[in-house]
Amino acid sequence: MKTSPIEIFEQKRPVIISGPCSAESEEQVLETCAAITKSGKVDILRAGIWKPRTRPNSFEGMGAPALKWLKQAGKDAGLPVAVEVANASHVDEALKQEIDVLWVGARTTVNPFSVQEIADALKGTDATVMVKNPVHADIELWTGALERLHGAGITRLGLIHRGFAQYGNSVYRNDPKWQLPIEMKRRFPDIPLVCDPSHICGKRDLLHAVAQQALDMDFDGLMLESHIDPSIAMSDKDQQVTPADLEVIIDNLVVRRPTISDEDLSQKLSMLRSQIDLIDDDLIKLLGERMKVAEEIGLVKREKGITILQTNRWEEIIEKASSNGMLQGLSKTFMIRYLNAIHQESIEHQNDVMNQSELKER
Ligand code: PEP
Ligand code: MN
Fold it and tell me: Quick count: other Cβ atoms within 10 Å of Cβ 18?
């Protein structure tokens, strides 16, 4: 996919996008933006104008009149401004007000009809468009949204990682699933990748850690929601930070370089990497051996006519292996994920053996 660079991303690392979740009033937008830009650490101002709310009867944004407030805040600070668009009329309104950057929200990226409608409305313009990941972890949908926009002639594209919806309790509002943005970076190395810790965390105290993690994974920018007084925010109250807190977060970020010119360091890294490669080879060999043993167990089960899934045995493995893993410094979450993946593969091998089909190519 041939894209064009977004100028600000060529000049600065990380690019900081900040501003309120929602534009609530002219004063709130102007005051918030003036306060966060004073120190010169913010590069693009954001505000939600049309708010896609999960449940009805919540604040749904101030609509088109709020575009002027944000544009004014941008002029005051001498910075570009960004808003979310979810349909063709949002695109028309935003372009009429000369909004510099548009982004497609997570709830829109999931819907190919909406993304196509936005792409069609953008035809013939040279808009800069950033695409948030879809709410669920579907990398092809995320890719498809980029392709639809690119197909409409939009070449200044960006990606925003805001985490993925999940059922049940977790420390995060949206599970980061870092492997997905990393895969997008592999697929589209020239497209800037921004992390949105605000929507991943859902609460202020985790923001710094997630922002740092993103920088350590070589993300190009951060989108952080800020509000002059988060306690009275009309949306996403718990995750917005005051201008002062935003500055603290930014000041405490360590920006590391993606590559090194230092010879010694580079040699040391390459030695450690070959060690990792050797360990990975061993792990893969061991996993292959484990599956062979699982297949033998499958044969025994077939002979004796017993089921593949033996719940007690599985619980015993989880118990033993996860406490072993923890002794090795591995997290319980990782151990459970790892064991589930192994168990799934093992069941498939046993299923093949028990039902005598050839091992499928995986
Ligand atoms: C937002 O940025 O305020 C927003 C609605 O985000 P998302 O699309 O990631 O939910
Ligand atoms: Mn928000």
Answer: 27
